[in-house]
Each structure stands twice: as C-alpha cells, then as structure tokens.
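<backbone_tokenisation>
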Amino acid sequence: MTEPFVPPPYPYDRLAEVVDLAERHAGGAVDLSVGTPFDEPDPLVLAALAAADDAHRYPASVGLPPLLDAAARWMQRRFEVSIGTQQIGAAIGAKEFVASLPKLLALRRPERDTVLYPAISYPSYEMGAQLASCRAIAVPARLDGTLDLDSIDPADAARALVLWVNSPANPTGALDDLGAAAEWGRAHGVPVFSDECYVEFTWTGRGRSILEHGVDGVVAVHSLSKRSNLAGLRVAFYAGDAELVGYLREVRKHGGMMMPGPAQAAGAVALDDDEHVEAQRERYHRRLTLLANALTAWSGRPVELPAGGFYLWMATGDTDGWGMAERLAIDAGAIVSPGEFYGSGGDRFVRIAVVQPDDRLQLVAERLGVR
C-alpha cells in the first residue's frame, strides 16, 4: 500500500529558536536567512505596474507580447542569443516553475521517473520530484563547483526526465560548465533545464547562459525577483528548445498558470532597463565584501566571496550548520540558514544572504566586533 505524502517541515519554519536568540539584541534581529530582496524596485517599473489597465482580464498564460519581446531583447543583449518569442514562456515566479516541472514532464514521458539535480542546491529541485512521485537523484559537484556528470549512473540517466543545473548556484555561488551539461543531456537524451536566476550577479567573468551552447534539448529559466527586486510580483520566464517550450506553454494553459497582466507589464519594463540592475550589482558586491571581511575577522578563518549570487557559503569549522547559526544569532543577532537545508553535504556550512540594507549589515559587523 502506498503511503500518503506528508509535507516535510518548511526549512525556514525550523529557525524559530535561532530567531528567538537573535531577537534578544538591542536593535532586533537581522534576517539573512531568506534570499528575499529588501531594496526598492525601480520607479519606472512601479509606474508600469500602476498604469496597467488589464487587471480585469485573464492574462495570456504563455506571456503577453510585450513581456516575451522584452525577454528576447534581454537575452540578445546579455548573451548574444537570438531566440523567437514562440520559444519563450511566462512563469509565475521561478519556484513555481521548478516545483511543477517534473509532473508536467512525467506526463510527456511516462516511461521515465527520475529527476537529476545538484547535491547541494535549492530545495525545490528535490521537492518538485517528490510532488511528482518521482525519484530524486542528487549529482555531486567536483572541487571546482561544476557538476560531476561522469558520476551519474547510466541506469539513472536512462530513467531521467530532466537534469537541473544552477549557475550561479544557490547556495554556494559556484559557476557550472553549462556547455558540458548541454552536451551531456544531448548525448543521453535528457532535457537539461538551467536555472539562471542569479546570472546578473556573476562576479567571476560575465554572466553565462546555457542557450549560448544551442537550444536543442535545453531550457533556461530566468527570474526578475533578484535582478529587479520584484520577488512579490512573481515574474519569470523560460526559453529554449522549441518542442519543450511549446509543450510546456500548451500544458500550462490547462493548469491556469497565468502571471497577472500588470506584473507582466512591469516585467517588460524591467527587462528593458539595465541601469537599475547595475546599481543593484554594486550594492550586493559591497555588502558581500563588508560581511565577508567581518566574518573573517570574527571567526579567524577566511570567508571567501562567491563567484556569483548574493550568498556567502561559510564553512563552520568545529561545529555544524545549526551550531554556527546559533553562534551568529547570539553574537551578532543575525539569522542565517544551516547548510543542511540545501542537502546533506552542506551540514558543515551556513548560507548568509546579504539582502538587508547597508545599515543593517553594518550593525551585524559591529556586533561581531568589526567597525
């Protein structure tokens, strides 16, 4: 008899005791656990949201033309990738897309039942597999942070619905070899979906997309949550292989997966503007540097800047992730995420999101004894 699915505790709901410790500080806790933006969106984007006059109508599930056109222009500017709007679809935030994808792909390929995903990663890759009653197989990383594709069991590859890659990676900030992932997928007949939501915050070299290596068998996923501080609007899109995107556009219609029209209008304006993104890049790099220096001085161990993203992936030394989270809550009033949230291989790390305003991060540094 098949057991009913019981949702596990949501990771951030498990932080209650850490939150209580951090809140004891004068000035309150500084929440660095969730990668949610605290900076304001660009005024032009908010003006487009307010001016939208189509909230009373059902929006196009696949995406309204202004949003799809803006996404195509952005990919051309950023990656020199030319792709037609029929190969782009809208999503109600990247997390919704990630979590629902395996179920939709399993309907397309019912003989397959396996999701391959990075061993240390965003929890929704594994959860998407569970929600689809699929096998979730973690792929380890090499020392340089790239996925060890050679470690994938051929039997798992033969059953795979999808290989997820994430570059820059959440939580580690590592950059993957997207060309190698695309090549592996094509060689094994496995679609490769590349989560590129942090690509605008690439610190080592320029931002890269898997679509630079051709679109056959691959789909890139992009979000405006981090790029444009629009997490509350749930604006994302996917683009790539014509057959895969075409299938997803059609099946998602039937599920009512529709991004609101005003959110699409705001997203189109945001994608056409790079100036506000550059300002946000400068903020995050400044905050990463500030906190990495403070944590290095406090811990006596080097805390490295990531190759991409806005997280510090800090080794915990003589304790585990929960122990370090408690220390930082007690000493600095900072709420951080134990690394086990992102896979068992992360249990000797914590993830620190530098999303709070500068003055709040400066407060953390001062509590750590750094001025």
The mean pLDDT is 96. The chain has two domains: 11-40+276-367, 43-271. Residues 275-299 form the longest helix (25 residues). Residues 11-40+276-367 form a domain with the Aspartate Aminotransferase, domain 1 fold (CATH 3.90.1150.10).
